[in-house]
Amino acid sequence: MATHMTTRMATHMATHMTTRMATRMATHMATHMTTHMATHMTTRMATHMATHMTTHMATHMTTRMATHMATHMTTRMATHMTTHMATHMTTRMATHMATHMTTRMATHMATRMFTSNAQQTQATHGDFLR
């Protein structure tokens, strides 16, 4: 009887303690690993996204700014040069034509006056000039 009860109690306690320890360790490890993995994966994802987004945004914003400035400066230079050249060429043509027409009119009037004076002198003093 002593042997039987000792064996039975030993078996019972072995089963009970094994089950209890297994349950306790399962609960403990579930809690521990949940916390550990939540922290680990949050940190890992945060690091990954920080690196990824830094690279991505640097590329994106560089490209966007390059495109923006190319368009902006092309438009600005086109507008500037249109205005500048219109003013420059108008002034240049006005100066050129003023000089040209003044010279032409002066030459024309000098020729005309010379011819007129010569004819008048011939008509008035023709007999004395021979």
Quickly give the structural class.
mainly alpha
Please give the radius of gyration in angstroms: 54 Å
Q: What is the strand content? A: under 5%
Give, in order, the helices and strands: H
The largest pleated sheet is described as:
none
In whole angstroms, how far apart are the ends? 183 Å
pLDDT averaged residue by residue: 94
Provide a count of the helices: 1
Find the count of extended strands (DSSP E, 2+ residues): 0
Describe it for me?
- The protein is an all-alpha fold and 130 residues long.
- Helix content is 98%, strand content 0%.
- It contains one helix and no strands.
- It has one helix spanning 2-129.
- The longest helix has 128 residues, at 2-129.
- The radius of gyration is 54 Å and the shape is rod-shaped.
- The mean pLDDT is 94.
Task: List the main descriptive attributes of the protein structure presented here.
130 residues; mainly alpha
Q: How do you describe this structure in short?
A:
It contains one helix and no strands. The longest helix has about 130 residues, at about 1-130.
Which secondary structure elements does this structure contain, and how are they paired or packed?
Elements: H1 2-129
